[in-house]
Amino acid sequence: MTTFISRVWGLAAMAAAATATLVSATFAEEPPSLKDAVESGQLPPMEQRLPDVPRVIDMAALGKTNGTYGGRLRMLMADAKDIRMMTIYGYSRLVGFNEKLEIVPDILESFEVEEGRIFTFKVRPGHRWSDGAPFTAEDFRYSWEDVETNEALSRGGASAVMMVDGEAPQFEVIDDLTVRFTWSKPNPQFLPSLAGASPNYIVQPAHYLKQFHEKYATAEDLAERVRQNSSRDWVALHTVKARAYRPENPDLPTLEPWMNTTPPPAERFIFKRNPYFHRVDGEGRQLPYLDEVYLGISSADIIPAKTGTGDSDLQARYLRFDNFTFLKQSSEQHKFDVKLWKDGTGSQVAYLPNLNTNDAVWRDLFRDVRFRRALSLAIHREEINQQFYFGLAQPASNSVLDGSPLYKPQYAQAWSEYDPDKANAMLDEIGLTRGPDGVRRLSDGRRAEIIIEMAGGTEETDVTQLVTEYWGAIGIKVFPRAMQLDNMRRRFLSGETMMSVWSGLNVGLATPDMPPEELAPVSSVQGIWPKWGQHLETNGMAGETIDVPEVAKLAALFQDWRVSSTTAERTTIWDEMLNIFTDQVYTIGTVNGVLQPVVVRNTLKNVPDEGIYAFAPVAFFGVYMPDTFWFDKE
Amino acid sequence: MSSSIPPDGEAISHFVSQTPFDPQGVEKLSPEQEKVYFASQLKLMWWKFRKHRAAVWSGIFLLLIYLSILISEFLAPYSLERRDVRAIYMPPQGIHLFHEGSFVGPFVYGYDFKLNMQTLKREYVPNTNDVQPLRFFCRGDSYRFWGMVESDLHLVCPAEDGYFYLLGTDRLGRDVLSRIIYGTRISLTIGLIGITVSFLLGISIGGMAGYYGGWIDHVVQRIIEVLQSLPSIPLWLALAAIMPVTWSPIVVYFGITIILGLIDWTGLARAVRSKLLSLREEEYVVAAELMGASPPRVIFRHLIPGFMSHLIASATITIPTMILGETALSFLGLGLRPPVTSWGVLLNEAQNINVVALYPWLILPVVPVILVILAFNFLGDGLRDAADPYHSA
């Protein structure tokens, strides 16, 4: 069965269509764009395309309305790589967050978790990939046995979330539609990783990918395909063809609401509806309502201007708070609405001292909690708020937001009041005396000059300009330096960076069941402790061992979380970690809860008026289900 | 050399006549004629230059604006660092003389400020009851004049507890007029320093190539070709990138002027070389050489004055390209950086859709850029005409 290729499955589906007996009354009319294909027999009718039990979206419960089919949604992006946004916005996951941030089955019909370590997944019977091939347990098996644990394809072994204390799960196929992952210890990261905006892919379209796999394709065929695609070898070919997060391969079957039809490089990408998508509205219409999504690639600088002239139907990416006035002004003429969503990051702009910087004097200083607290106290957050955000943001440390169940005022307030006198006193206490020019001197006599590296836009530059003044007032001279993101990552890992500017915690709306990985060293891309992160990431092969007790404690707590089995346990761990993280001021936050302009065409329905705009956990628009958005043609 | 030819086989003796040259020896000139015919080259140039009205006015304008950079602190109503949180994106205030029909003297109306929470715009409405007379020669923000003398005297200040933003304010509530005045200092001097570097290099390298010719000329020509074939923007990028960030903005400023100068000398060197190539064949040069003058003396005493006028004219044409170069570099974010304020830096900050749509006064720094570039071009035009006073167009 698994050796069929997609075309055969299309034929099989058609054969099934021919023998189908009755059209169920619960199904609505076909989307007009598919009608021809269905009538000519290229596509089976809707009830055969849908799983036996589709996921029914109760629009009324979400405050939405049932819509009508059709239309093209235009959006603007700044880079061809941004087509990954469609995977994020589409947000079709095995299990996903709902609007209350609970994990619910989406692609799966159901899932079961026993003791936090045994996960049983049940696929919807009759669920099909976008090319019509059935989606079965084989796709799980292929992904786990032939990709994730294949030595050639995954040289580093299975991804970190799949490993608990170095132990891989035991994988079983229970029947054609049921699979089970079993660990000996709990793995609380597993479900959130499947529900992530950038998900952990444990399912891959086996029927399509086998033609690129050494184990299934004949050597001659494979060699021919490698040659045709001018790949290095079959491993490279498989990796490129299987890339689902950034859907660059138009042939790759998907389970998302829209599938890419344009191979890069291109100036515009057209995503067409997936005729086999598994969600329906209350009246039996197969989602998505919108036939096409059109991504125009432009430059980040002119996206606000183009949006203002009505070139986008739905836009939030590359719009900033200070574009609101301009957008609002042109909204009437160009018939769109500007909604204000809340940004979901822990801090709009945060300063990350690099605790692993090469300069020994600065390293010691950054590791001195008094120094970090002094820097934080010197920032006049309310002024930043008034100056750039109309006083609509919240001055706070870099922590979880008010809307998170983990929020406590003491986290937001930790060392975030404006008290330059106290800051000066703390710096005096450390022994940084001021020179005749007002700049403090380090222990080796150098002037206290911090180079802040940033890869962001004007917002970061502006806030940094104020911060330069605030820190200048306490005798710390600041030099902002703009650079490219990749370059910056390389630099802080090598220890050249002293301090970098980022947005704060991604999981501003954390729930206890989400991994607190941003609060502990886990990865080399963390600007605060890249070398410690690298050490844990590589199991001690590279990087440095943690030699600060509080950070070691955070790392230990994170390990505890990784093997915790109840939500109560996780809440305690989160609390303790947030407490240490904010009290130690590892990152210096400014303001959070900034409003994000969301431009919505007047005729586009079902886009909520209020929402959270964040990568995690809501996947930007993803949790609000763009497949339910529709154009009112009247 | 009019002495008699020596007999065959004898060397020609080296003879220099000591008798002063009498210009009136052949024909006696009237005093009026004398005035014209004996006028120095400089005088002739001045006469010719005076006729070019646009050039004269441009010259006066440039002179004034260059004088202004000596007293920027005094002219600017506010200091460079001054931020006013209450006046973010405040539109320009007009100067009025009469309030409700009666003469008050120069004054501005205050603004009523409202935060429009619908459009999230700061709205300023002139309040015609709030008359804020301007003060002159008054005490305002303190500054260190020329970095030495502590002072707080300004040409014009707002009323006590009032404000005066003739050209509006920017996103941090800084006075655009003051920033333009301070920016003038950097933008105009960067041209001068750059031009000095470029002239020193251009004249000496071009002079050497032109005077000596041969392999020196060849080497110099190839170097110039290589330098000119480098695309300039990427070269600036690379050079600007190697300047360490910890350098103080002033050192960076010098670095940029020198970079501009280092790249700009090639055109001038070519001009100098070709001029020298033709002039060194002239009889007066041969005469000087025969009289035993050394190469530097020949170059600097006899050759350079021969085309000094050309150099002056080309300098006035080059300065605006230097100013534009700085503006372009800073506009791209590669040149000067805040807190150094130049016109290019100001324009760099004005490059987004919000400014164009909502705060158009932030684009005003282009006005001085255009005026100065035009003035330099007119001046250069006039000087070029004047540089060849014997040629009548």
UniProtKB/TrEMBL annotation, chain A:
Molecular function, one GO term: peptide transmembrane transporter activity
Pfam families in UniProt: SBP_bac_5 (PF00496)
SUPFAM superfamilies tied to this protein: Periplasmic binding protein-like II
UniProt-listed InterPro entries: SBP_5, SBP_5_dom
Signal peptide: 1-28
Coiled coil ranges: none
Family according to the record: Belongs to the bacterial solute-binding protein 5 family.
This protein's name: ABC transporter substrate-binding protein
Provenance organism: Aquibium carbonis
UniProtKB/TrEMBL annotation, chain B:
Keyword check for Translocase: no
Record membrane topology: Multi-pass membrane protein
Family named by the database record: Belongs to the binding-protein-dependent transport system permease family.
GO biological process terms held by the UniProt record: transmembrane transport
Signal peptide: none
Subcellular location: Cell membrane
UniProt xrefs under Pfam families: BPD_transp_1, OppC_N
InterPro entries (UniProt xref): MetI-like, MetI-like_sf, OppC_N
Keyword Transport: yes
UniProt superkingdom: Bacteria
Organism: Aquibium carbonis
Protein's name in the database: ABC transporter permease
Limits of the ABC transmembrane type-1 domain: 184-380
Segments passing through the bilayer: 54-76, 188-213, 233-263, 311-336, 356-379
GO cellular component, one term: plasma membrane
Keyword annotations from UniProtKB, A to Z: Membrane, Transmembrane, Transmembrane helix, Transport
Coiled-coil stretches: none
